[in-house]
Amino acid sequence: MPEFLKLTPPDVALETFLLNLPAAKLQSEKLPVIEAAGRTLAKDIYAIEELPAFRRSTVDGFAVQASSTFGASDSLPIYLQLVGESPMGGQPDFLVNKGQAAIIHTGGMLPEGSNAVVMMEYTQEASANEVEIQRAVSVGENVIEPGEDVKPGELLLTAGKIITPAVIGGLMSQGIQEVEVAIPPRIGILSSGDEVIDPYQTPKPGQVRDVNSYSLSALVTELGGKPVRLGVSSDQEEDMRARVREAMDACDALVITAGSSASVRDLTARILGEMGSPGVLVHGIRFRPGKPTILAVCNGKPAIGLPGNPVSALVVGGLFIKPMINHLLGRNTRLARPYVLAKLSTNTPSQAGKEEWFPVYLHQEGEKLIAEPIFYKSNLIFALAKADGLIRIPLDANGLEAGEQVEVFLI
Amino acid sequence: MPEFLKLTPPDVALETFLLNLPAAKLQSEKLPVIEAAGRTLAKDIYAIEELPAFRRSTVDGFAVQASSTFGASDSLPIYLQLVGESPMGGQPDFLVNKGQAAIIHTGGMLPEGSNAVVMMEYTQEASANEVEIQRAVSVGENVIEPGEDVKPGELLLTAGKIITPAVIGGLMSQGIQEVEVAIPPRIGILSSGDEVIDPYQTPKPGQVRDVNSYSLSALVTELGGKPVRLGVSSDQEEDMRARVREAMDACDALVITAGSSASVRDLTARILGEMGSPGVLVHGIRFRPGKPTILAVCNGKPAIGLPGNPVSALVVGGLFIKPMINHLLGRNTRLARPYVLAKLSTNTPSQAGKEEWFPVYLHQEGEKLIAEPIFYKSNLIFALAKADGLIRIPLDANGLEAGEQVEVFLI
Questions:
Q1: Which chain A residue has the Cα nearest residue B337?
Q2: Inter-chain contact B382–A334, Cβ cutoff 8 Å?
């Protein structure tokens, strides 16, 4: 008879798991910045050049000496002599003295002598070589000084930052062409079950295709890891032990889907427990689908034992594989899970004492989003494949009622 | 003097843009399923095989004839003769008759003669060949019939669906090895500005590096498009017109960053207006940063004119490039933008009449997330590169106060 599991609340399980993971042993590689999108910075980035590199205008208008404008107003404007136009991309070859002004565009370089810019809106053409100033400016107004944005040597970005489009822009603005990024951790993915066959084969009676190796590979890739598909282990203890040991040696972490029967899941836990200390940290989570999840750390390497059914494997996988990969990559991301709010279409029962997740469709009804739960009998993968998101029913709730506002986590 | 812009609210601008886009002319290609993650289904997917393919147990327990258990209870159990164990991955080679039971695991095939499964929890070993049944089951209980999940010919997934890990799992469960996906639309990316140089060069006084071509390329790739970097156009009308025309011919859509001065932005709008009807739909959005954005559709091809400053280009780009690419890919995704809730750390002023977006850091303080706005003088790209997310201050608000709850859109 299988032993009864001591169920851990999901947030406690995650905390326990992360606390037992040793600091990431980061391996890194150099990449051209334009190929590094989505990767993780392995080193802090310091500024090489000052930004801006020259004194720039932040508006369209007229470069002046601020003192030339003192006292100017709508009713009592001041007239300044036009002495030129600051060229975009070049250096003005003239001076702006007291009583003079020069046309300048946003981003243009201030001519020598000028120290402020009057916005276009507060000026008027007076004649071909005179401009009317209707408002005074103070020294430095509408001007950004060299180095005001970035000073050489300044810390710009810290290791662990994901390389977003804005990070790529920032690196480019400094003329940085190569960047040191973390190498994706190798996540071994092992399916198990005597009934599970390669999906390219045709199942005989009693057999099912291996879905998890492929859906979890896609998940691992999406999350920034490198999936290593290790095929299907039988439920035989010796075979599974050998394959788990091989995987733990070859990879930085292991995800094993542990067959669907309780005895096989217990076997998985026992084998993971043999792989090194501290061993199995959590076996059983107050979570549905995915109660029999196993979290282990063995000699510094994390291992996750997921339930064999494909929906559980993916839903629980998202919950634990993501923070595990973030940790292995040295990412400094928060664990906040973004959601959209929607109105629940139907009463959705759940069992108190378990955090329950349901796949939902999202519909737009006027301004409102409607979440329609997808009920299913077995843990059908298409229930999840068709869904737009997942809703969470808290640990202590007895389900949710139609019309209630729910948080939908998009997938 | 530049003309004054008629500012459109951002949601109206987006609606106008999308309504004027013709139906996507989808080009598709065949890919192995395992290489198709993140792509978009170009055709509906119908079931080939029934799932499950055999009558399966959904629990661990004992396969029985339901009628053998009628009347069983804790206090008055019924004893059945053990006749075997259903093998995982195989077909049981024995019958279960009235008064008999067979061990079965979750996912196992029901033996001939049996029509229900009693859960392990409601049984007890009585002797080596007898099991005690403490609860009655009805016909079909804990059993899933062939085809109950999926029937051959059934519509499984519709065209326009993004290929998530669950979709890959679903396709694998049907033995589908190749899939028809939409070819990413070619999004031309053109920078403009006499002051803008290739980022691999060293700027001379007055020059700045081209940041937008690279940050927007990364954004387009992330959103599922194929960026085509077209370099930097000068601010000369003839040069820009020739390059825009070339881009509109060669690509499925154009994104142009339109220099930083008002006159150059007006030039961009004028040139986009010449590229075909209906032409410029929106010029100027009640949005900060990014007011002078241009949205156009020319002979069926969309074009977006973004402000030249890198923060505006990315923030507005995210707002309009994403739905544009979704449309071009024929995606059936909703436009819901997920967020996390956080407490604002500081008063954050804004101008009523404009929807304003601020980059923020996120900190965890106990259970709570704190959003700390990143204030910056010029539109410094590093303000966005360092940020964890963006907060939105609504059109009609005069800023937000410290301690208020804000929606943070992660980046």
A1: A340
A2: no
CB contact under 8 A, A206 and B167: no
Cα–Cα–Cα angle for B253, B259, B263, nearest 5°?
110
Q: How many angstroms separate the Cα of A358 from the Cα of each of A268, A315, B165?
A: 27, 10, 17
- For residue A366, the enclosing domain spans 340-410
Q: Are residues B188 and B258 in the same domain?
A: yes
Q: Is residue A3 part of a domain?
A: no
Q: Do residues A132 and A246 share a domain?
A: no
- The pTM of this model reads 0.93
- Burial code (b: 16+ CB inside 10 Å, e: under 16) for A209-222 equals bbbbbbbbbbbbbb
Q: Note whether A222 contacts B37, CB cutoff 8 Å.
A: yes
CB pairs under 8 A between A and B: 322
**Per-residue pLDDT reduced to its tens digit, A211-223:** 999 999 999 999 9
| pLDDT for res A212 | 96
- Rounded to two decimals, the ipTM of the complex is 0.92
Are A206 and B380 in contact (CB < 8 Å)?
Answer: no
A410, closest residue in chain B (CA to CA): B338
User: Which DSSP helix (H) or strand (E) runs through A173?
Assistant: helix A165-173
In angstroms, the separation between the Cα of residue B73 and the nearest Cα of chain A is: 20
Q: Is residue A156 domain-shared with residue A39, that is, in the same domain?
A: yes
Question: Do residues B271 and B154 both lie within one domain?
Answer: no
Closest-CA distance of chain B to residue A20, Å = 20
Residue B347, domain CATH:
2.40.340.10
Closest CA to B216 of B243, B192, B187: B187
* A211 and A132 part of one domain: no
Q: How many structural domains are present in chain A? A: 4
